Amino acid sequence: MISWLVIVVGLYLSWNFTELESASSLQNTLCPILVFLFLIALLVKIVFLMGPSSGRDVGSGGGGFFGGDGGGGDCGGGGE
Fold first, then answer.
1. Helix 2-17 vs helix 31-50: angle between axes, to the nearest 10 degrees?
2. Which of 50, 55, 58, 80 is the most buried (most CB within 10 A)?
3. Contact at 8 Å (CB) between 15 and 30?
4. Position with higher pLDDT, 68 vs 14
5. pLDDT at residue 75 greater than cutoff 90
6. CA 21, 27, 29, 32 torsion: positive or negative?
């Protein structure tokens, strides 16, 4: 819970202090970088929160591109 709070508060504060036309390197360089990093951290946490239980179960599918449970069958070959 505390990590959510740190990410959201950090994103909010760095967004508010960002001013791209400022003479201060803190406001025109560091704050936009922090906005980007906090935004990426927030998106990663949201993706991990959704996880495999949200209907994207990766390991239980039957029959992907190469996988599946199709019976191979007999290639035959007549006894000529």
1. 150
2. 50
3. no
4. 14
5. no
6. negative
How confident is the prediction for the chain on average, in pLDDT? 79
- State how far the Cα of 52 lies from the Cα of 79, in Å rounded to an integer: 51
**Residue 39, pLDDT above cutoff 90:** yes
Contact 27, 17 (CB under 8 A): yes
Rounded distance between C-alpha atoms, residue 33 and residue 29, angstroms: 7
Per the confidence metrics, is the pTM higher than 0.85? no
10 close to 36: Cβ distance less than 8 angstroms? no
